[in-house]
Design brief:
Structural class: alpha+beta
Strand content: 5-15%
Number of strands: 21
Helix content: 40-55%
Largest sheet: 11 strands, antiparallel
Length: about 750
C-alpha cells in the first residue's frame, strides 16, 4: 500500500511528516488562533546546560516525585499484571476472565474500537466512529447523518462497503526470531530493514498456515517498545458488517467542537452494527452482556480497546523536539486548513454536505484540539519535569552497574544528538504537511501522488498484490468540490513557496509564468482528477503519460517527497534502534513491568469511576438528561446544542434523572473510541467516547489527578432506546426487557 511505503517505520517522525503532519522550525509566536497567547518555551541557552546527571549547573527541569504508573496502564493481554488487578480490585484476573475480556472486544476498521454485545453478532461502537459508514449506506434523498437510522428488522440492516471488524484470537511472542535476524547486521538502517524483512516473513508464513485452515483468520506482526519486543497478533476478521442503529448527529455530537474534550458532557455517542456471515446474522458466543444496575463513585471499571499511539517511553530530548519543532507547525497547518474548510462549509453548506466536508472538518478539529492539549502539556512543564526526573533515576541505576553502563550508558545522549540531526530535514519536509491527510489536504493532489507511484511501480514490475493494494487505496479517495480544491491547492502551493523557496528549481518548474492562484485554478479546472470515474481510467491507463494538468506538478515535487521520506526513514530507523536499546535497559533495571506505548492493538486499562476538581470546581462523575435539556435551553439559538424534535417532544415523559455520561480514571487515547466500559463481572456499564482536556497530556505521562476518560452511561443508552427511539428489538436483544 502507498501509505505503508511512507510510514512503515514506527517512528513518530515519519508518521507525522507524511500522514498526520510534519512540522517546520517555525517560531511558536507565529502559531495562529488559540495558541497565540501560549508562552514560548525557553531555549537551551536560557535553561542552562542540557547535561542530565552529575551536572554542576541547575537541572533542566525541577526534580519531582515520579509515579508508579507514569508509563500508563495500557496492559497487553500477554503481560497483564494479574496480582495487581486481583489485589487492587478483588477480581478473579484468571485466564477465563482475560479470555472473555479479549474475545468480547473488537478492532473497528483502522481507526476505532468496538465490542460484541449479543450472541447474534451485535456490535457497539461510537457514533463518531460510524459517521463515514452512515453516509456510505444512505440512499438518494436520505440524510442519515442528520436524521439517524434504525433497522426495524434484520433484513433492513445495511451493509457497509469495505467495513470490517477484528477479534483478537491469540498473541505469540516472536522477539527472539526477529532480533536474531539483525544480530550480525551493521548500521541502524540495515538492522531495521533486516528486522522488517524477518517480521514480514513471519507474517507471511503465519498467514499461509492460517489460510489453509480458516480463511477468516489473519495475522500481523506487532512491534512493541520501538522494537524491543515483537509479537504475532492473530485476528478473526469479519468483513460483512451492517448498520443497525445510529442516533441523529445532534445527539451523537451534542455540544459540537466546543464541548469536545471537555466535561461535563451530555452526548449520545453510540451506534450499533451487526456481523453477518453469508445470508445470516453472525453467531458470536463471545460477547459482553448488558448491566443496567449501574455504577457509583469509586466502582472499579475496565476498558478493553485499541489505543492508537502514545509517547510515554520517549525521552526529554524527544519531547523537547516535539514541543519546539513538530507541534507548532502541525498546529499552524491545522488552524489554516480548518479555517478554509469552515469558511467553505459556512458559505455553501448544501454543496459541502454533498461531499461530506462537514465530517472532514469535524475530524480535523478533533485532531487539532487533541494536539493543542498535548502541546500545552509540554509547555506547562509538569510532563517534562516528571520525564526528566525519571531519566535522572534511570541514569543513576545504569551508572551503578558496570555491565549496564557499558551496554546502555550512552543511549540518552545518542537520542539527544539525533534530535539535532532531525532538524536538518525538518524545513523542507514542512512543505508536505498532511499531504495525504484526506480531512485537510487536496484530494486531487492525493490522487496525483497515487497515480505517480502506481504508474512507476507497474512499469518496474511490482508484485500484483502490491499494485492491487495501492490501486484500492487510490480509488477510495473521495472527491471534493472544485471551489474548495482551488483554495486548498493554493494553500499547498504557498507551503511549497515558503519551505522550498520561490527560487527553488522545483517551484520555478511548477509555477512557470503563473501566480499561485492561477496555477491552482488551472489544476482544478483542467485536471480530470476531480472526477473519480476519470481518475480510475487514468489509473488503469498510464497516468504519467496522460497529459493531465497535474502531471507536471507531481513530476516536480514527488522526487523531493520521496527523497525526504528516505532521509526521515533513516532517522526513524536510528531513533527506533536507540529506543529499543532504551527499552531493553528498562527491562534490565525494572523488569517488564511498564506497558509498551500504544500501537492500535488490544489493551486492558483498569480504573475507577471518579469525580475530580478542575479550576477549583468539583466535577461530579455523572451527568444526567435533565442537565442536557437545561444546557440546550440555556444555549438556545446555538446550533451545537440544538436537540432533535423527537427529544423535545418527549422531554416531559423522559426520565431526566437517568445517568447519561460519566468519567473514570481509565487510561485511554485516540483509537479507544468505541471501547466498552466494563464492570468487574465484564458486563457493559458504559461506552468510551472521549477524554477531558486534562487527559490530553497523558500522551506523554499518565496522570489521574484530574485526567478522565468520558463514557456514555449504559443506563443512558437504554433510556434513549426505550423512550425516544422505541427500539424494542434492540432492547430485547440486549436483554434489558422481556
Amino acid at each position: 500500500m502507498l501509505r505503508s511505503l511512507l510510514d512503515s517505520s514506527k517512528s513518530v517522525l515519519v508518521l507525522l511528516i507524511f500522514i498526520s503532519a510534519c512540522s517546520p522550525p517555525i517560531q511558536i509566536a507565529t502559531v495562529k488562533g488559540k495558541l497565540e497567547k501560549l508562552p514560548v518555551p525557553p531555549s537551551n541557552e536560557e535553561k542552562g546546560s542540557t547535561d542530565a546527571v552529575n551536572s554542576v549547573l541547575e537541572p533542566r527541569y525541577p526534580i519531582v516525585e515520579t509515579g508508579e504508573f507514569d508509563d500508563g496502564k495500557m496492559w497487553t493481554f500477554d503481560r497483564v499484571p494479574t496480582q495487581y488487578l486481583k489485589t487492587t480490585y478483588g477480581i478473579p484476573a484468571d485466564s477465563a476472565w482475560f479470555s472473555k475480556a479479549r474475545l468480547g472486544a473488537l478492532r473497528f476498521s483502522t481507526y476505532c474500537s468496538a465490542s460484541l454485545v449479543s450472541p447474534r453478532g451485535l456490535v457497539m461502537t461510537n457514533h463518531h466512529c460510524a459517521r463515514e459508514s452512515i453516509i456510505d449506506v444512505q440512499k438518494g434523498g436520505e440524510n442519515l447523518l442528520d436524521d439517524g437510522y434504525y433497522a426495524l428488522h434484520d433484513s433492513l440492516e445495511r451493509k457497509v462497503k469495505d467495513l470490517y471488524v477484528e477479534q483478537l484470537i491469540s498473541i505469540e511472542d516472536v522477539t527472539d526470531e526477529v532480533l536474531k535476524a539483525a544480530e550480525k547486521v551493521a548500521g541502524a538502517a540495515p538492522k531495521a530493514e533486516a528486522r522488517r524483512k524477518r517480521a514480514e516473513a513471519i507474517e507471511t508464513r503465519t498467514n499461509s498456515k492460517l489460510k489453509a485452515t480458516d480463511a477468516t483468520l489473519t495475522a500481523e506482526v506487532v512491534e512493541l517498545y520501538s522494537g524491543g519486543k515483537y509479537a504475532v497478533y492473530t485476528y478473526r476478521k469479519y468483513e460483512d458488517v451492517r448498520l443497525v442503529f445510529a442516533p441523529e448527529l445532534k445527539m451523537g455530537y451534542f455540544g459540537g467542537d466546543t464541548d469536545n474534550f471537555t466535561y461535563p458532557r451530555h452526548t449520545l455517542d453510540v451506534s450499533f452494527f451487526r456481523i453477518w456471515t453469508g445470508d445470516s446474522v453472525g453467531v458470536t458466543p463471545d460477547y459482553f452482556s448488558w448491566n443496567t444496575t449501574g455504577l457509583n463513585e469509586g466502582d472499579p471499571v475496565f476498558v478493553v480497546g485499541n489505543p492508537g499511539s502514545t509517547s510515554r517511553l520517549h525521552t526529554v530530548d524527544q519531547l523537547e523536539y516535539e514541543r519546539d519543532i513538530e507541534l507548532p507547525g502541525l498546529l499552524e497547518i491545522l488552524d489554516d486548513r480548518t479555517s478554509v474548510l469552515a469558511d467553505y462549509l459556512h458559505s455553501l453548506p448544501a454543496e459541502a454536505d454533498s461531499f461530506d466536508v462537514r465530517n472532514d472538518l469535524m475530524g480535523a478539529r478533533n485532531t487539532q484540539k487533541a494536539l493543542e492539549g498535548q502541546y500545552k502539556g509540554l509547555l506547562d512543564g509538569e510532563v517534562l519535569s516528571r520525564t526528566y526526573s525519571a531519566e535522572i533515576d534511570f541514569e543513576k541505576e545504569i551508572a551503578a552497574s558496570d555491565s549496564l553502563s557499558k551496554l546502555y550508558g550512552s543511549v540518552l545522549s545518542d537520542i539527544k544528538l539525533l534530535q539535532n540531526s532531525k532538524k536538518s530535514s525538518a524545513s523542507k519536509a514542512a512543505a508536505f504537511y498532511h499531504f495525504l491527510n484526506p480531512s485537510v489536504s487536496s484530494h486531487i493532489l492525493a490522487r496525483s501522488i497515487y497515480g505517480y507511484v502506481y504508474t512507476l511501480l507497474r512499469q518496474r514490475g511490482a508484485p500484483p498484490e502490491q499494485l492491487q493494494d495501492i490501486r484500492k487505496e487510490a480509488l477510495a479517495i473521495k472527491s471534493w468540490p472544485k471551489d474548495l480544491e482551488k483554495k486548498i491547492i493554493a494553500h499547498r502551493l504557498h507551503d511549497f513557496t515558503t519551505y522550498l523557496g520561490a527560487a527553488d528549481a522545483s517551484m520555478r518548474r511548477i509555477l512557470g509564468d503563473l501566480s499561485i492562484e492561477q496555477l491552482a485554478d488551472t489544476l482544478v479546472s483542467k485536471s480530470v482528477l476531480s472526477d473519480s470515474t476519470e481518475f480510475r481510467k487514468l489509473l488503469d491507463g498510464n497516468y504519467l503519460a496522460s497529459g493531465d494538468a497535474t502531471v507536471n506538478l507531481i513530476n516536480a515535487v514527488a522526487p523531493l517527497y520521496f527523497t525526504l521520506d528516505s532521509e526521515l526513514r533513516a532517522f526513524g530507523d536510528q531513533e527506533d534502534a536507540y529506543l529499543a536499546r532504551l527499552a531493553m535497559a528498562g527491562f534490565a533495571v525494572n523488569g517488564e513491568n511498564a506497558p509498551p506505548d500504544a500501537t492500535f492493538t488490544l489493551r486492558l486499562a483498569d480504573g475507577r469511576v471518579s469525580s475530580y476538581t478542575s479550576e477549583g470546581k468539583d466535577i461530579s462523575a455523572f451527568t444526567n438528561f435533565n442537565g442536557m435539556y437545561a444546557l440546550s435551553e440555556a444555549k438556545a439559538g446555538l446550533s451545537e446544542w440544538d436537540l432533535p424534535e423527537s427529544w423535545l417532544e418527549c422531554a416531559s415523559e423522559f426520565p431526566g434523572d437517568t445517568p447519561f455520561n460519566l468519567v473514570s480514571t481509565n487510561d485511554i487515547t485516540g483509537g479507544n473510541s468505541g471501547s466498552p466500559l466494563l464492570n468487574a463481572n465484564l458486563e457493559v456499564v458504559g461506552l468510551i467516547f472521549d477524554g477531558n482536556l486534562e487527559s490530553l497530556p497523558n500522551e506523554y505521562v499518565f496522570d489521574t489527578t484530574s485526567a478522565r476518560a468520558v463514557s456514555v452511561d449504559a443506563r443512558g443508552i437504554i433510556a434513549a432506546l426505550e423512550y425516544i427511539y422505541h427500539a424494542n428489538r434492540l432492547l430485547k436483544e440486549l436483554k434489558t426487557v422481556n
